[in-house]
Structures are given as C-alpha cells and as structure tokens.
Design brief:
By secondary structure, the protein is an alpha+beta fold. It has one domain: Gcn5-related N-acetyltransferase (GNAT) (Aminopeptidase, 3-Layer(aba) Sandwich). 27% of the residues lie in helices and 31% in strands. It has four helices and nine strands; from the N terminus they run E-H-E-H-E-E-E-H-E-H-E-E-E. The strands form two sheets. The chain has a seven-stranded mixed β-sheet with strand order 1-3-4-5-6-9-7, with helices on both faces. A two-stranded antiparallel ribbon has the order 2-8. Helix 3 links the parallel strand 5 and strand 6. The protein is globular. The structure holds coenzyme A.
Length: 176
C-alpha cells in the first residue's frame, strides 16, 4: 500500500535507500551501485530540501500488508504534457527479488494514471544494464536522451569512474 512519507519516516527511508542503492557485501541488493559510486545515496536533509523545493512532487512509502513495515519508496513528480518523473524507487534489499519492486512500480503507475498522467519518465545511470533490462521488461523504452552525471557534486555519492551519464527511459501508460 502506498502512503505518503511523513517527516518521522525519513530516517527509515534514508537507511532503506542507502542500503538499496549503495549496499555492499552479503546484504546488498541485486543492482547496488556500490561498484561505481561510493558513499550514501541520500540524507535526511537532502530529502527534506527536495520535498520543500518541489511541493508538486509526492514521496510515497510502501507499507507491507503482512508486517505493516516500510519496505520500499518511490518519488513521483509532474512534468509537462502528461509526463510524470519517477525516481527513488527502492525496495528493502532483504526483500528484493520476490516481486515487491514490480508491485511497487505498478502501484506508482496506477497512481499516476489516477492523476491523469499518460507517461512515466525516469533517468537511470547508463552502466546499470541489468536494471535497465528490468525496466524494459516492465514496458519502459530508452528515449535516446541522456543527461550528464553531476561530476563535482558529491552530495549523492562519489563516482568511481569517469564515464557515467544518465539515460532517460519512458513508458506510455495504457488507458484504464
Ligand atoms: C530496482 C528495485 C526497486 C527492484 O526491486 P525488487 O524488489 O528486486 O524487484 P522484483 O522482485 O519485482 O524483480 C526482481 C527481478 O530482478 C531480476 N534479478 C534478480 N537478480 C538479478 C541479477 N543478479 N541480475 C539481473 N536480474 C536480476 C529477477 O529475475 C526479476 O526480474 P523479472 O521479474 O523481470 O524476471 C530494487 O532492486 C532496488 O531497490 N534497487 C536499488 C535502487 C534503485 O536503483 N532503484 C532504481 C532507480 S532508477
């Protein structure tokens, strides 16, 4: 179930995102970025600043129906012409590869449809082949657009190689 992230959820969400994006060793998820970006993906102050700067955006937690615990999150933000940006999609690494990511992505797409959105767009680091393939299996396509990696701005981690960029993926939502 998607619910809006409250202020007092932020410590849990930050820990979950950092483990999902940058976890290493036995507890890492299957597509951790730790091999090419070191350091944390986010902090409470960065998330608070994003929420303040983007009042149109919605940041959701996923509550597992069985445990009532936060087991994932997703950020959704309106763009132009029916498009919504989807970011920070993450599931608890201890619960990955069991269908939760697909469930969370579908719920996010359904929510966008309810808002009248017709497309979902996202950016993914270019070297994340297995993650891009995961999105392609969910109906996303690379648009051919790229965006520069923010070299020099280490707030979201420190890149360990010099050939990173973002590719833009998009999915046209089927009308209900
Ligand atoms: C991306 C993410 C949300 C997926 O969540 P999840 O709970 O693992 O997703 P699911 O269990 O629904 O799907 C698992 C899929 O991964 C595949 N998979 C598992 N291990 C894999 C591996 N080592 N290599 C390639 N694919 C793998 C499975 O085959 C399955 O694919 P399929 O259902 O298409 O056959 C989660 O891994 C995550 O939080 N990643 C880190 C944060 C991140 O980078 N988010 C994306 C930002 S753009």
């Amino acid at each position: 179930m998607l619910e809006r992230v409250a202020d007092d959820d932020l410590p849990h969400i930050v820990a979950l995102m950092n483990r999902a994006y940058r976890g290493s060793g036995a507890s890492a998820g299957w597509n951790s970025e730790a091999g090419y970006i070191s350091g944390d993906r986010t902090t409470e102050s960065l998330l608070k600043a994003d929420l303040l700067a983007k009042p149109d955006a919605s940041f959701f937690k996923w509550i597992a129906p069985s445990s009532g615990q936060i087991s994932g999150c997703v950020w959704l933000e309106p763009e132009a012409d029916g498009a919504w940006y989807l970011g920070s999609l993450a599931t608890d690494p201890d619960q990955q590869n069991a269908g939760l990511g697909k469930t969370l992505l579908s719920a996010a797409e359904a929510w966008v449809r309810e808002q009248g959105g017709t497309r979902v767009r996202m950016t993914v680091v270019n070297v994340r082949d297995t993650l891009i393939a995961w999105y392609v299996r969910r109906g996303y396509r690379t648009t051919g657009e790229t965006q520069p990696f923010p070299y020099g701005d280490n707030r979201f981690g420190t890149p360990l190689r010099d050939d990173l960029a973002f590719v833009v993926l998009e999915k046209v939502l089927e009308p209900v």
